[in-house]
Amino acid sequence: MRQDLLLWLESGLNLFPKRTKELKSVVHSAPGWKLFGKVPPRENLQKTSKIIQQEYEARTGRTCKPPPQSSRRKNFEFEPLSTTALILEDRPSNLPAKSVEEALRHRQEYDEMVAEAKKREIKEAYKRKKIMKERFKQEENIASAMVIWINEILPNWEVMRSTRRVRELWWQGLPPSVRGKVWSLAVGNELNITPELYEIFLSRAKERWKSFSETSSENDTEGVSVADREASLELIKLDISRTFPSLYIFQKGGPYHDVLHSILGAYTCYRPDVGYVQGMSFIAAVLILNLEEADAFIAFANLLNKPCQLAFFRVDHSMMLKYFATFEVFFEENLSKLFLHFKSYSLTPDIYLIDWIFTLYSKSLPLDLACRVWDVFCRDGEEFLFRTGLGILRLYEDILLQMDFIHIAQFLTKLPEDITSEKLFSCIAAIQMQNSTKKWTQVFASVMKDIKEGDKNNSPALKS
User: Fold this and answer.
1) Does pLDDT of 6 surpass 50?
2) Torsion angle in degrees (nearest 10) through CA of 22, 27, 28, 33
3) How high is the mean pLDDT of the chain?
4) DSSP bridge pairs for 258
5) How far apart are CA 144 and CA 436, in angstroms?
6) Residue 125: Cβ within 10 Å count
7) Distance (Å, rounded) from C-alpha 236 to C-alpha 276?
8) Between residues 192 and 67, the one the model is more confident about
9) Each residue of 318-331: pLDDT tens digit?
10) 345 pLDDT more than 80
11) 270 pLDDT band (50/70/90 cuts)?
């Protein structure tokens, strides 16, 4: 094989002998140049290192000896690529040699470095193995749970949805393959929306966008309501570009950009009294990731029709204050020390809760963790949204107690990215949603009854 390759190379070199000779002649006959006129051509041969060494020896009369072979060990078990290995090297010949003590010390330092590197490598390997083991266990649990959901629970949904076994399985998180189906069943379809109805409102949205693009002056839109103006293509486009930007799938040209745009546009035509509000895109996007387009719209419209979501998206200040007041009752019950700390800075729930509730935590938490929050939210309703908020405060209680108003607000607006499902749900589980034998719904009903018209602009739970 090697001989064939050599023969091929030799034959290739003789493919253009005439052209090669012409090039050589051109090179040798090309005149040199100087500032004024021509000079004879010079030989421009490349000198090898051997020729340069011979010329140097002839000119100086010195003979260059090859450098001595390094006395360093050749069979190291571990050879670091960093400069720390230089401690084993002998010094150059023009410098004093290492003393015996220094050489031994360097040898010891090197051995310690190698031992430390091996320990670190073993520790990292153990950590990787542990992570992989937990991941495999989680995948096995998801696979076994998926079989139970598909074969036992979903075919008997109405009978089994409220059983203790199903609720416990639900708390652990829904398998991704059945998540969308369970969400749809749990949210329900009280509005009786059909895929055909979705297509009708989508057509209306497209007509509206077309008319908006054709009329740019304000005079052309004098008869358009505020809700219709909020539903304009420009506002929806702006919000879509901010929806899970790291995923890129909802950005312009992404696979789900047009689907998200369609669902948001259709909803603004379906509910002009609500219109388009910032934060809706995150909820629609999460549904799109788990459901088909028409099913995602049906779940989206029914989800926003729930009392809590309707109060927030219609910016009903009176109802929002009642939700905040109820939240603070359980805040004080579960985290009294942190509650007093917040109260000392007059830090009210609207500063951090609005963003959490508007997007159902899909913007504030990692997407996989947000989906698990959605799982239990579909099971327990609005109560779990506020319980999750208390779980977050409990998780970071020690940190928040050391902060002032500005830092607390900044921290809760942008939560740490390394928050894990196990830690958060452990804190959520520790939150007791019961106050003096009253549950969330009972406390909320009491707040609704006690709040007077004159208190609409102030959260009653913050009053002294």
Assistant:
1) no
2) 140
3) 81
4) none
5) 40
6) 10
7) 8
8) 192
9) 999 999 999 999 99
10) yes
11) very high
Contact 279, 267 (CB under 8 A): no
Question: Residue 426 — φ and ψ, nearest 5°?
Answer: -65, -40
HEC assignment per residue over the chain: CHHHHHHHHHHHHCCCHHHHHHHHHHHHHCCEECCCCEECCCCCCCCCHHHHHHHHHHHHCCCCCCCCCCCCCCCCCCCCCCHHHHHHCCCCCCCCCCCHHHHHHHHHHHHHHHHHHHHHHHHHHHHHHHHHHHHHHHHHHHHHHHHHHHHHHHHHHHHHCCCHHHHHHHHCCCCHHHHHHHHHHHHCCCCCCCHHHHHHHHHHHHHHHHHHHHCCCHHHHCCCCHHHHHCCHHHHHHHHCCCCCCCCCCCCCCCCHHHHHHHHHHHHHHCCCCCCCCCHHHHHHHHHHHCCHHHHHHHHHHHCCCHHHHHHHCCCHHHHHHHHHHHHHHHHHHCHHHHHHHHHCCCCCHHHHHHHHHCCCCCCCCHHHHHHHHHHHHHHCHHHHHHHHHHHHHHCHHHHCCCCHHHHHHHHHCCCCCCCHHHHHHHHHHCCCEECCEEHHHHHHHHHHHCCHHHCCCCHHHCC
Residue type, 241: S
As a whole number of Å, the end-to-end CA separation of the chain is 94
Residue 357 has pLDDT above 80, yes or no: yes
Q: Model pTM?
A: 0.70
Quick check: 333 and 439 in contact, CB under 8 A? no
Cα–Cα distance, 328 to 334 (Å, whole number) = 10
Nearest-angstrom CA–CA distance, 174 and 195: 25
- Report d(CA 282, CA 332) in Å as an integer: 30
| Distance between CA atoms of residues 276 and 267, nearest Å | 8
Across residues 208-226, what is the average pLDDT? 57
For residues 105-110, average pLDDT: 86
Tokens of 148: 């139970």
Range in 89-103, 246-260, 359-373 with the lowest mean pLDDT: 89-103
What's CA 452's distance to the chain center, in Å? 43
d(CA 122, CA 116): 10
Whether the Cβ atoms of residue 371 and residue 178 lie closer than 8 Å to each other: no
State the pLDDT at residue 312.
94
**C-alpha to C-alpha distance for 415 and 352, rounded to whole angstroms:** 11
**C-alpha 167: how far from its chain's center?**
29
Region 150-159: what's the mean pLDDT? Answer: 94
Q: How confident is the model at residue 60 (pLDDT cuts 50, 70, 90)?
A: low
